[in-house]
Write a structure and sequence with these properties.
Number of strands: 12
Distance between the termini: 56 Å
Strand content: 15-25%
Number of helices: 9
Strand order of the largest sheet: 3-4-5-7-6-10-11-9-8
Helix content: 25-40%
């Protein structure tokens, strides 16, 4: 069947699903099933193991490690790197551009078109997932992953956060995150964020159970107390959360203008299914510190949440030998702590 026809017919069917009581959650569950049936998703997560490391003197503080051996396969890609003879490519063969996806994935990968607040995205399943229903939400247009810090170009911060929080609000059993450039983003040239369903066995992430300071005043975030790196949190109505976060972060950027060339960030959003309120987490990042010391893996939204991903045989040996404990993870996360001024 023609690829464009397959895409349009699947989207038409999923639109009917979206109109039902399951909404976008049901749509992406059905999309995942479709992409497993076609063979695009390469992992059913059956080989994933999770280990919890609790602070010896404070049982309320813990970190997790996910051993996910099939994630190591992502470096070799899930499709073609060079187009067939006579087939063109766009934007250097970007893996998130629909025009390239067709030939790269041999007509197997199909996405679902989502319209947010004035922005259009394609929901694409991750072939090597970290979590159940792991989806990449990629802008339909090929635009940079950078958000505009100083008027020099990039994605508007307000729009980025609004789309991220809107997605989280529409999928209350999921967690969404945006990784900035040199803050875990694997494709810096194309705007995208990710969302996944909470694992049934351990749905709450370490950062979510952490103690935060009381919200002080105005648009100032509450900060995680003694977390290995600074993480601020806004909670409440999605619109109010985005307004407060945007205002505070823009002042923060202005206050650190001498460091602007090194600044990046992670944003994490999750919704409370009972009342629709959103929690938005902000982790400022230093571009010169993209990887964990002692582990050498990139730090993205999942690591900021307190769950490290191990995939190599060497990392598995560290786990089996008992070399990993709470303080090992704490020190690894602290190694990416930025030195920017955080009070604005």
């Amino acid at each position: 069947m023609d690829y464009d026809l397959t895409w349009s017919e699947l989207n038409a069917r999923l639109r009917e699903t979206e109109a039902g009581i399951g909404g976008l959650t049901a749509v992406l569950a059905e999309l995942e099933h479709h992409q497993r049936e076609t063979g695009f998703i390469k992992d059913d997560l059956s080989s994933v193991e999770r280990r919890v490391f609790v602070h010896p003197d404070d049982p309320d503080r813990f970190f997790r490690v996910q051993y996910n051996p099939k994630r190591a396969l992502r470096f070799s890609g899930a499709g073609l790197g060079t187009p067939p003879v006579g087939v063109g490519h766009v934007n250097g063969g970007c893996f998130l551009c629909r025009e390239n996806i067709r030939w790269q994935q041999r007509d197997v990968q199909v996405g679902f078109e989502i319209r947010m607040t004035g922005n259009k995205y394609n929901a694409l399943m991750n072939p090597f997932p970290l979590m159940p229903n792991h989806v990449v939400i990629a802008a339909d247009e090929h635009i940079t992953q950078e958000w505009d810090m100083d008027g020099a170009g990039g994605v508007d911060l307000f729009c980025l956060l609004l789309d991220l929080c809107d997605t989280a609000k529409r999928m209350p059993q999921h967690v969404g995150f945006y990784n900035g450039v040199d803050a875990g983003a694997s494709i810096p040239g194309h705007l995208h964020f990710q969302i996944f369903r909470r694992p049934d066995e351990e749905p709450v992430f370490p950062l979510e159970s952490w103690e935060f300071e009381a919200h002080s005043y105005g648009d100032t975030p509450a900060w995680a107390r003694d977390y290995p790196l600074p993480v601020g949190r806004w909670q409440g109505n999605a619109g109010e959360v985005v307004n407060k976060a945007t205002a505070w972060i823009r002042r923060w950027v202005t206050g650190n203008r001498d460091c602007i060339g090194r600044m990046s960030s992670n944003f994490i959003a999750a919704a409370d299914g009972r009342d629709g309120e959103v929690s938005l987490y902000f982790a400022p990042r230093d571009r010169v510190k993209p990887r964990l010391n002692g582990v050498a893996d990139l730090v993205g939204g999942l690591e900021i949440l307190g769950e490290l991903v191990f995939s190599s045989n060497e990392q598995r040996k560290l786990l089996d030998d008992g070399a990993i404990d709470y303080f090992y993870i704490e020190n690894a996360l602290a190694s990416v702590r930025p030195q920017f001024t955080m009070t604005r």
